[in-house]
Write a structure and sequence with these properties.
Structural class: mainly alpha
Helix content: 55-70%
Strand content: under 5%
Number of strands: 7
Distance between the termini: 53 Å
Number of helices: 46
Radius of gyration: 33 Å
Shape: globular
Length: 922
């Protein structure tokens, strides 16, 4: 692109240059800036990056560029960008240091969680920008490997108070939605006036006006097209305009122009160009060695006049434009490409870079080659150890393609499909399974195919299809691996529980009977006890399973269970604790789940663990704590791109009585749960809908929602809670028969459970249907039992109902005492709708009660309150940053605002203040 004559700008790019200059100014002032430049090939994105680089005086700069042939090598782009910063790796917290070091192959260890890699990269970049502003440039970001792209998008979303600029250039159209969550600046074509100016600057001879107009029109303001299209015209064509219009897309026309220029070069120069195009690192020494293998004189080849404008050999190999690289590679025939890759493989160090060598060998193969396939398989193992699941899948798929033996080919294809599935590429995984099925019959392989089809079905929202597939897999596995077969049966049971009452396929009883038929384990583990207990629950019913469920919960609460088993099954243990009406052990299981996910760095599991913990806090009446936990879950979910059902937020909104928020969450949860085939989620939403409406005293609507929640009593947890809501709503809406039926169903499980929570809500529900002395005795029993539990919301509701009953008995003094306690409890908890209901009843007794409003003088935002709470608990800034996925600089920035708002000067003072984390979002 031609310069406009001003150092500050490019021709026709004043607005774009200003946007980039503003980012630099912000970084110099200590604020982060992120931008994605999007535009077609040749539109000028790279020149805008150069403009930013030119203006970055006094800043540290790091650069990377995506390379199409490296898209399967996990973290290759990230390593390229961060390589200059790795001297700061040892200053990172140990989990982050190990994760990033392992991802880059600098350390040997367990495969790192990709979100820990993201947090480590955030810390590394933030620390690098502490002494001087840091400018990070990534060109051709559409060709970044998936792991690098996700990590850099994670980092970009978390930057705030760091002196860092992060700018990407993405060629459009691009596959998927690369970096789609980040601020964008579309780079469009030049105006016709600027296009003519640029065209005239490079055409030295006469140019027919009609030809000029056609070039300007066809280029659509694309600067590279304006510079390149005239090169393909003869003098006669430029003067007379007699050539035929090219119907190819503009990028293809430009590439075709480069292709013609490559093909016009001497044969030796062409061979050098397509060898360079096949070598993604731009390593000049490596290229010279490969060229020597091919008998190419590098200096003579690049000395040709036509080559100098296409390729340069400086400290790195540089093509004028990525389209030159692709044109050069296209210019080679299949045999020439294989020859180039073979030469590159021969000169690539097998010890230092075995994976890239294996990839070159694969591209050099002309047919099946077991030696190369084995190399690729080893590369897959190394990639998986670094956390590069997508890269492992690519290596394994290529290995299967090069395998001659049908059984071995099928096995490698199966392993590739498994890796694709783990990487979230569900459709490609399913396609690879077709290759697996084409192999010779093998029962173990077919079992794994069934299990993978089940996993794909569940991940794609077809949850009800998963149980029969998992059962089929488990049956096949019995003859090979009893432990794995039992784990698969447990997966089938779990899938059935979350899918809810099926409309087709095996029901709970069928799944339970199959699980009861599983071969016994040699050494029973906690998960074996869990399988046996759930199998009894699904076949013989709730009461028969209670003793076994209690033993399972004791194991999950008290015994040492391997980390991987805990990560897989603690969520299900929480479900059965809730089903047993045992909030204390539900709390223990949920807390253990959160702790283990944090310590293991299993961040993909953390939102689920936090959500379960939040629901426990809601039942306990700890709404401020629940709000803080939900905020953290939301933060983590946004950071990792998770989209789980918001059960914690839904429970919180319902108990608070925030109607608009709750109804939005209810509708969304029901819709999404039904789409995903997860009926239990819809049942939970109906239950919280009933809670909301009972709090708002809309009893007919509450009864309708509660009937939906209680419809499938075979499901876990929520249907029984729905019965409690149904008894209250039916009594209040004048349907005692409906309430009586619901109470009879409720008693079947509460008495089998025997916990104070269960018997307390049963006594409260029975009191609603009783008269005189019996009712009073039951209310007192309910209050006494619930007072012994953590279930403070249910206790407050028992006092409210007792007070309402006393009022209707004209015992106003007694009623006022109970209602004042209920009102105080609801107000302190933050259950506004129930508090208002209690206030109305108090008013009816003649008491004067002001509507209590929860206020705060601090006006902290939700994140400020969250950071203040963690600081008050004694966490350091790096620890807070690690927990909330922000840098320590951002933590410091937020804490300064907290200190200002609270009128304090140190974090020690935070601990003496009562912060309400739920107020800011009120």
């Amino acid at each position: 692109m031609a310069r406009s004559g001003s150092r500050a700008g490019l021709l026709g790019r004043q607005n774009e240059c200003k946007a980039l200059d503003d980012l630099l100014a912000g970084a110099r002032a200590g604020h982060s800036g992120v931008l994605v430049l999007r535009g077609e090939a040749g539109i000028g994105k790279t020149e805008l990056l150069r403009h930013l680089l030119d203006g970055a005086t006094g800043c540290r700069t790091i650069r990377a560029a995506g390379v199409q042939s490296e898209m399967e090598l996990s973290y290759a782009g990230l390593h390229q960008l961060c390589a200059p910063l790795l001297t700061g790796l040892d200053q990172l917290p140990e989990p982050q240091r190990d994760a990033l070091g392992t991802a880059f192959g600098l350390r040997v260890g367990a495969a790192p969680d990709r979100f820990l890699v993201g947090l480590a990269t955030l810390s590394l970049i933030a620390e690098a920008g502490e002494d001087q502003p840091l400018v990070c440039l990534v060109d051709d970001a559409q060709w970044l490997d998936k792991a690098s792209a996700l990590t850099l998008e994670f980092v970009a979303r978390r930057l705030l108070a760091e002196a860092v600029v992060l700018v990407f250039a993405v060629r459009e159209p691009s596959a998927g939605n690369a970096l789609g969550s980040l601020p964008e600046l579309p780079v469009t074509g030049l105006t016709k006036r600027d296009s003519r100016t640029l065209l005239d600057s490079i055409v030295t001879g006469p140019l027919d006006e009609r030809v000029r107009d056609r070039i300007v029109s066809e280029s659509r303001g694309n600067p590279l097209a304006l510079l390149e299209l005239p090169r393909g015209l003869t003098t006669a064509e430029m003067v007379g305009g007699f050539e035929s219009p090219d119907a190819w897309p503009l990028s293809s026309q430009i590439e075709q122009g480069f292709l013609r220029r490559v093909q016009s070069l001497p044969a030796e120069t062409q061979r050098l160009l397509f060898t360079a195009a096949a070598e993604p690192l731009g390593d000049v020494t490596l290229l010279r060695r490969a060229a020597g293998r091919l008998g190419i004189d590098v200096d003579a080849a690049v000395s040709h006049d036509g080559a100098a404008d296409l390729i340069t050999l400086g400290t790195r190999v540089g093509f004028r434009h990525p389209l030159v690289r692709s044109a050069a590679y296209r210019a080679a025939g299949p045999s020439e490409r294989r020859e180039a890759h073979k030469a590159l493989a021969d000169v690539t160090d097998a010890q230092l870079d075995p994976d890239r060598r294996a990839w070159h060998l694969a591209d050099a193969a002309s047919g099946p080659d077991e030696t190369v396939a084995a190399e690729l398989e080893r590369s897959a193992g190394r990639a998986q150890a670094r956390g590069g699941i997508a890269a492992a899948a690519a290596f394994l798929q290529r290995a299967s393609e090069l395998t001659r033996d049908p059984a071995r080919r099928s096995q490698r294809a199966l392993e590739a499909a498994q890796a694709k599935f783990q990487a979230g590429a569900f459709e490609p995984a399913a396609a690879l399974l077709a290759t697996v099925k084409a192999g010779p019959p093998d029962e173990l392989r077919w079992a794994r195919i069934d299990a993978m089809h089940a996993g794909i079905a569940f991940a794609q929202g077809r949850g009800k299809e998963a149980p029969p597939l998992l059962l089929a897999a488990a049956r096949r596995l019995e003859q090979f691996d009893v432990a794995l077969a039992r784990e698969t049966y447990l997966e089938a049971v779990s899938a059935a529980i979350f899918a809810g009452q099926p409309t087709r396929g095996p029901g709970y009883r069928e799944v339970g009977e199959a699980a009861r038929g599983a071969p016994p384990p040699q050494l029973p583990r906690a998960t074996d006890k869990l399988l046996d207990a759930l199998a009894v629950r699904l076949t013989d019913g709730y009461a028969a399973s209670v003793p076994m469920i209690e033993r399972v919960l004791t194991a999950f609460c008290d015994e040492e269970i391997p980390v991987q088993e805990s990560l897989r099954w603690l969520l299900l243990a929480g479900v059965i604790a809730a089903d047993l009406w045992d909030l204390e052990r539900w709390h223990m299981v949920a807390a253990r789940h959160v702790t283990i996910t944090r310590e293991a760095g299993a961040l993909s599991e953390l939102p689920l663990a936090l959500d379960s913990s939040a629901v426990v806090h809601v039942f306990a009446g700890e709404l401020a704590t629940a709000a803080s936990v939900i905020e953290e879950a939301t933060t983590v979910s946004a950071a990792i791109g998770s989209n789980q059902p918001p059960f914690g937020a839904l429970a919180l909104a319902a108990v608070r009585g925030r109607e608009r928020e709750a109804r939005t969450l209810i509708d969304a949860t029901i819709s999404e749960s039904e789409e995903r085939g997860q009926g239990l989620g819809a049942t939970v939403a109906h239950c919280h809908h009933a809670v909301l409406c009972n709090g708002l005293a809309r009893y007919e609507e509450a009864a309708t929602a509660a009937r939906e929640a209680a419809r499938h009593q075979q499901e876990f947890g929520a249907p029984r809670w729905g019965l409690v809501e149904l008894v209250e709503a039916a009594v209040r809406s004048g349907s005692p028969e409906l309430a009586t039926d619901a109470l009879e169903q409720l008693a079947e499980t509460t008495r089998a459970s025997g916990t104070d929570w269960a018997l307390g809500v049963e006594a409260r529900s029975r009191a609603l249907l009783s008269k005189a002395d019996a009712a009073e005795q039951l209310y007192r029993e309910a209050i006494e039992r619930l007072a012994r539990t953590r279930v403070r919301v249910e206790l407050a509701r028992a006092r409210l109902l007792y007070g309402e009953w006393l009022s209707r008995q004209n015992r106003r003094v007694d009623a006022r005492a109970e209602l004042e306690v209920a009102h105080e409890m609801f107000s302190r908890i933050g259950a506004a709708a129930f508090a208002e209901r209690a206030r109305g009843e108090l008013h009816a007794t003649g008491a004067k009660v002001r509507s209590r409003t929860i206020t705060t003088p601090t006006a902290l935002t939700s994140q400020e309150a969250q950071i203040a709470r963690l600081a008050g608990e004694g966490l350091t800034n790096p620890e807070i940053g690690a927990q909330l996925f922000i840098s320590r600089h951002t933590v410091e920035w937020h804490l300064r605002k907290v200190f200002s708002k609270l009128g304090i000067s140190s974090r020690k003072e935070i601990g003496t203040m009562r912060l309400k984390g739920d107020v800011a979002s009120a």
